[in-house]
Specification:
By secondary structure, this protein is of the alpha+beta class. The protein is built from 2 helices and 7 strands. A hairpin with a 3-residue loop joins strand 6 and strand 7.
Length: 156
């Protein structure tokens, strides 16, 4: 009877872990900060002091009814010779240039103003400005579940 309870608890643990991994994939998570408030938001980006934001929890914009944030955006702007960086969830736009996220949109104006928009949606935290590795949290859960499963199987 005890082995049946263990089997059920192991199955339940695996289902919860897999369900969490799948549900976390329904929305994108982006870095949100401004370099005029925190210099660590500038490039090179230091994300150690910023939590990553789940964009599905962003409140809807009154001027954009019905739109949800489905992308991340990094804006680099030069105003009066000073560079500023803004990282956030994005409601509008297309990822990259021609759907190629390696490229950004550049705009220049008068009075020494330059703006660069980088929009992405391929992976969480893509607006960091650097390439991220695999999702170590999900891999850890999967590995842990596998170890628990094999340990319980060897006990029986």
């Amino acid at each position: 009877m005890i082995s049946n309870k263990r089997t059920v608890s192991v199955y339940l643990g695996v289902v919860v872990t897999l369900g969490w991994a799948v549900l976390s994939g329904y929305s994108i998570k982006c870095w949100e900060c401004r370099s005029d408030g925190d210099p660590k938001c500038a490039d090179p980006f230091d994300n150690t002091s910023f939590p990553i934001t789940d964009c599905s929890h962003k409140p809807p914009r009154e001027h954009l009814p019905g739109l949800e944030s489905t992308m991340c955006r990094k804006i680099r702007q030069k105003v009066n010779g000073e560079w500023r960086f803004i990282r956030s969830c994005a409601f509008l736009g297309e990822p990259g240039v021609g759907n190629d996220e390696r490229y950004c949109i550049h705009r220049s104006g008068t009075y020494n103003i330059h703006v660069e928009y980088c929009t992405c949606r391929k992976k969480d935290g893509c607006n960091s400005g650097r390439s991220l590795g695999p999702d170590w949290e999900v891999l850890g859960y999967m590995l842990g579940s596998g170890l628990i499963w094999s340990t319980i199987r060897s006990i029986r």
